[in-house]
């Protein structure tokens, strides 16, 4: 029997597939890995958006865009905490704490680096705002590296989840 994703609605109803209620909070919240897969999109989107705002703010000298970049970075950094926690929890629950290797190990290392870079970029913005100083120009390089590391981490995560290829 194939996957429910490969089946027509009739096969699902008549073929013995169990349908999960999409509004069943217990199933959604207690799934062994679902929280990480859902939460991960927040820091990614917030960080990329913040970097875009920061680049445009640097180019146009618009304070409103710099403020938007700062608050996006703040929420991106804060949202890395539950994302890292649920990622580690998914590893523990699904793989029962087995030793990591291959793509999963690389994903974990890059996820740590991504989180550190997001917090570092936020801290650079925070420090400059606190002492009313101009932002250092080297931050733009760190932001670009951050986006590349985040993108690579997400790409590997896609392989692990089966989105970017076979499991």
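Q: What amino acid sequence fits the structure above?
A:
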């Amino acid at each position: 029997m194939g996957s429910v994703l490969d089946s027509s609605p009739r096969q699902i109803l008549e073929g013995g597939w169990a349908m999960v209620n999409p509004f069943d909070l217990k199933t959604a919240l207690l799934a062994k890995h679902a929280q990480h897969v859902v939460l991960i999109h927040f820091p990614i989107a917030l960080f990329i958006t913040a970097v875009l705002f920061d680049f445009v703010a640097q180019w146009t000298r618009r304070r409103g865009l710099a403020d938007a970049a700062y608050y996006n970075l703040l929420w991106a950094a804060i949202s890395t905490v539950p994302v890292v926690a649920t990622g580690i929890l998914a590893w523990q629950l699904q793989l029962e704490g087995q030793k990591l290797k291959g793509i999963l190990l690389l994903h974990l290392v890059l996820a740590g680096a991504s989180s550190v870079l997001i917090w570092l970029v936020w801290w650079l913005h925070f420090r400059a705002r606190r002492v009313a100083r101009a932002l250092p120009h080297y931050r733009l390089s760190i932001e670009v590296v951050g986006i590349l590391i985040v993108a690579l981490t997400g790409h590997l995560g896609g392989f692990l989840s089966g989105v970017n290829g076979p499991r």
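Q: And what stands out in the fold?
A: The chain has a mean pLDDT of 84.
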